[in-house]
Amino acid sequence: MIEILNEDCDVTLSTLDKCVDVILTSPPYNVGKSATSETARNNFDGKYDIYLDSKTSEEYCNWCVRLFNNFNSVLKENGVVIWNVSYGGNTKLNKDCNDLVWLVIADIIRNTPFTVADRIIWKKKSALPNNVSPNSLTRIVEDVFVFCRKGETKTYHANKELASVGKNGQQFYVPIYNFIEAKNNDGACKLNKATFSSELVVKLLEIYAPKGGMVYDPFMGTGTTAVGCLKYGCNCIGSELSEAQCEFAKERLNDNGYND
Predict the structure, then answer these.
(1) Does residue 90 or residue 7 have the better pLDDT?
(2) Helix 243-255 × helix 224-232 angle, to 10°
(3) What whole-number distance in Å separates Cα of residue 148 and Cα of residue 82?
(4) CA neighbor of 82 nearest in space, from 234, 259, 247
(5) Which of 17, 57, 229, 235 has the most CB within a 10 Å radius?
(6) Are 44 and 190 in contact (CB under 8 A)?
(7) For residue 246, how many other CB atoms are within 10 A of its CB?
């Protein structure tokens, strides 16, 4: 079952019970770029077709904290939140834009039931945009943070295989490294210029999602998480504000062989 809902994630979260195994998403990065007119969208300006990605640092941190507190009510015991973010932000609103991701994570740890269980480095196939800074390094990687509840750091679900048991009973597992190589995205889309790749989604699900489990994406966009779930073999629910992106996502699913 894959369901894409044209509504704010707050609405969806208020209706879901503890039925979600994994929350997997790439949220708005607060980079201050949005297409606010038909002309801008047609010219590929901005990153999203309707969402205004321009909060202050305080607003963005408070928004993320509220989301995670809501996640707590829908995530199953020992479930995880997989959160793909990149440093950066709206320099006009936030002088601390390059620190914003760390401010958010600190606030999530301080003010929600969640903590960071792991950090995965996603190496892309290419580095975009082209580097124009005299001192900042060209960004070829992004972070994927894995959150679990603070009381579940020893028990949260991961698909690790037992390799052997030592003479003293010590268990050893087949290693899964915190480094994933996957392409940047699944292709250009004028509705959303901040998509990630279904290849990355599948590789993350292989680590953390049970086959046939339920995945939720509060920022479904053009359907990348849903396509990854279809390929891996998971159920999926997604929320998306943009009606156009919802329709685009459903077309992508149909193109990948899904018939609802």
Answers:
(1) 7
(2) 30
(3) 9
(4) 234
(5) 229
(6) yes
(7) 21
Could you tell me the sign of the dihedral formed by the alpha carbons of 196, 235, 206, 259, in that order?
Answer: negative
Instruction: Please state, in angstroms and rounded to a whole number, the distance separating the CA atoms of residues 195 and 49.
Output: 12
Homologous superfamily (CATH) of 2-255 is Vaccinia Virus protein VP39 (3.40.50.150)
CA angle, residues 28, 22, 246, in degrees to nearest 5:
50
175: amino acid identity, one letter: P
pTM: 0.87
**CA distance linking residue 214 with residue 76, whole number of Å:** 10
CA-nearest of 155, 217, 161 to 22 is: 217
Mind listing the pLDDT tens digit for each residue in 184-239? 888 877 777 667 899 999 999 999 999 999 999 999 999 999 999 999 999 999 99
Question: 219, 13 in Cβ contact below 8 A?
Answer: no
- Confirm if 19 and 74 have CB atoms less than 8 A apart: yes
* Cα R_g (the chain), whole angstroms: 18
Helix (H), strand (E), coil (C) string for the chain: CEEEECCCHHHHHHHCCCCEEEEEECCCCCCCCCCCCHHHHHCCCCCECCCCCCCCHHHHHHHHHHHHHHHCCCEEEEEEEEEEECCCCCCCCCCCHHHHHHHHHHHHHHHCCEEEEEEEEEECCCCCCCCCCCCCCCCCEEEEEEEEEHHHCCCCCCCCCEEEECCCCCEEECCCCCEEECCCCCCCCCCECCCCCHHHHHHHHHHHCCCCCEEEECCCCCCHHHHHHHHHCCEEEEECCCHHHHHHHHHHHHHCCCCC
Q: Which two tokens stand for residue 72?
A: 């707590």
Which residue in 104, 82, 100 sits closest to 90, CA to CA?
A: 100
